Amino acid sequence: MSLKGVAAFHPDSITDNPFIPPIVITAFKRYNTGDAEGVAIEEKGISAKKEVTVSYQDNVLNFEFAALSYRNVFKNQYAYKLEGFNDNWIQLGTKHDVTFTNLDPGEYTLRVKGSNNDGVWNEEGTSLKITITPPWWQTRWAYAGYFMLFVAALYGLRRFELNRVKLHNELRMKNFEAEKLHELDHMKSRFFANISHEFRTPLTLILGPVEQMRGKEFKGNLDEAYDMILRNGRRLQRLINQLLDLARLEAGRMSLQARPENIVSFLKGLVLSFASAAERKRIALSISAEEENLIVYFDRDKLEKIVSNLLSNALKFTPEGGQVIVECGLQNADFDRIQKDFSAIRNPQSAIIK
């Protein structure tokens, strides 16, 4: 019964609605954070589009959709999922819109499905691809720039490290050169000290007989004394020549001038030049050799300095009444051996130079 009369129907004639409704997106609105007034921006013709692109500043996105079934429209139901954010279907009931806020830049796919008034679902539904562009500092070009800056920073650090190592090596080289210069100065000082010592020995051997001759106290052979004075004068001349070779010493190119000579006669001459000094201290100075003619390779100047120093030290540290013996011979039939024995320390009365 109604206001217009009585309505009659047969219950068997009432059936469910079998229509599968098409699903369409009917509206899309976005709100941009750069808009101070907060006015919604509506996308035109959204129902015909398969893809939309928005900015990262569009932080509020609102979509409306509808199931095109017009029988009891208020009973139509909906569900959605946003692929890339949540892959599960979310039931909306009869609510036919959805809002997303603060989505990260990237690509998403909005899928919507719906049903008619009798719950017949369109499982295929509809979809819309959503691309949210990132800020400029998150773009590929920005990341490429970051990579280039990173590479440049690594290169700069590497160059800095190489320069630091280079400066460190240069400083070490300068310190090394300074040490070498210091060693060279020390070597020069030692050289002059040795030369001074070498000058003193022949001068002493010359002045001794001369002073004895002048004081009428000389009792030896005058010819031998003259020969000794001549030998030591020539020795002084050689020492002066060595001073002139200082430049070669500084350059580190003092070569060994070795040649074959009779070392026995050479040593006898050196020992004889110290006879006057030994006589003044009443020291018995003698030389013994296994052979009279022993040919070996040696540098006269350098060996003379060595033996003279040994003889000078032996006469200096041997007390009066002692003896100094110079022995010359072959050791293992290979090399001539000249060494100072320290028996003078154990036995103050004698010193043996071999």
Q: What's the total helix number? A: 7
Give the % helix. 40-55%
CATH superfamily of the domain at 17-135: Immunoglobulins
Radius of gyration: 58 Å
Mean pLDDT: 83
Question: What is the class of the domain at 17-135 in the CATH system?
Answer: Mainly Beta
The structure class reads alpha+beta
CATH architecture of the domain at 17-135: Sandwich
Query: How would a crystallographer describe the biggest sheet?
Result: 5 strands, mixed
**Spatial separation of the terminal alpha carbons:** 154 Å
Basic shape? rod-shaped
Strand order of the largest sheet: 3-9-8-5-6
What name does the CATH topology of the domain at 17-135 carry?
Immunoglobulin-like
Low-confidence stretches: 333-349
Order of helices and strands: EEEEEEEEEHHHEHHEEHEEEHE
Strand count: 16
Estimated share of beta-strand residues: 25-35%
Your description of this structure?
- This protein is α+β, with helices and mostly antiparallel strands and 354 residues long.
- The chain has helices at 140-214, 222-244, 246-251, 263-273, 275-280, 300-317, 343-346, and strands spanning 23-32, 41-42, 51-55, 58-67, 77-83, 86-93, 97-101, 106-115, 121-133, 259-262, 284-289, 295-298, 323-328, 330-331, 335-336, 350-353.
- The strands form five sheets. Strands 3-9-8-5-6 form a five-stranded mixed sheet, with no helix packed on it.
- Helix 1 runs antiparallel to helix 2 and helix 4 crosses helix 6 (300-317).
- Residues 333-349 have low confidence and may be disordered.
